[in-house]
Amino acid sequence: MIISEILDKLSINSIYLVKKKNIPPIKIQEINLIKKNTFKFFKRKKIDQRYMYYLCLLTLVNYSIWDYKEKMFLKKKKYK
């Protein structure tokens, strides 16, 4: 897995943890795998401030997408 995939999954799972109340066990396993992979990159000093900055931006973009999709879903339900 490459760093961009790991950071994208990390951002999406962070949003998931904030937005959802019940977290299924499979999601917890995925989060643990991401932690493990992220730690490997930190350990090798492959992640620096630039990556953290981009992770924050990526998380904001992913959150906006998540929020927009949620609003679309709720609007769709209103019209049924």
Instruction: Report the sheet-strand fraction.
Output: under 5%
Tell me the total number of β-strands.
Answer: 0
H/E order of the elements? HHH
Basic shape = flat
Tell me the helix content.
over 70%
Name the structural class: mainly alpha
User: Whole-number average pLDDT?
Assistant: 80
Biggest β-sheet: count, sense, barrel?
none
- Kindly report how far apart the N and C termini lie: 41 Å
**Poorly predicted sequence stretches spanning 5 or more consecutive residues:** none
- Count of helix runs: 3
Taking all Cα atoms into account, the compactness measure Rg is 15 Å
Descriptive notes:
With 80 residues, this protein is mostly helical. 82% of the residues lie in helices and 0% in strands. The model has no long low-confidence stretch (mean pLDDT 80). The chain starts with a helix and ends with a helix.
Brief digest:
The protein is an all-alpha fold. It is 82% helix and 0% strand.
Question: Helices and strands in order, then pairings?
Answer:
Blueprint: H1 3-19, H2 25-43, H3 49-78
